[in-house]
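Input C-alpha cells:
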C-alpha cells in the first residue's frame, strides 16, 4: 500500500460524478488517455457526458420552466 501522502481521495456523488483529487490521467475504454491538472476532477459515471470520461453535468435532470411574466402577490 502506498504511503498516505501518495493516496488519492475519490468521492462518489450519489446520482452524479466521481470526484477525484487531481492531477489525474484517465484511460477510456477505447484506450485514449485524458489528462487533467485540476485539483479536483469530476469523472462521469453515467456516460451521458459529451466530454466523457470527464463530467459535463449531463446527468442532471433538465427541468423546463415556463415564465409567463406574471408574478403572484400574497
Amino acid at each position: 500500500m502506498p504511503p498516505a501522502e501518495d493516496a488519492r481521495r475519490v468521492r462518489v456523488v450519489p446520482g452524479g460524478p466521481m470526484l477525484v483529487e487531481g492531477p489525474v490521467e484517465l484511460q477510456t475504454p477505447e484506450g485514449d488517455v485524458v489528462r487533467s491538472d485540476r485539483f479536483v476532477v469530476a469523472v462521469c459515471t453515467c456516460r451521458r457526458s459529451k466530454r466523457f470520461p470527464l463530467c459535463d453535468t449531463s446527468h442532471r435532470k433538465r427541468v423546463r420552466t415556463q415564465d409567463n411574466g406574471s408574478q403572484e402577490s400574497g
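Residues 1-24+42-59 form one domain. The beta strands are 10-12, 18-21, 24-27, 33-36, 40-43.
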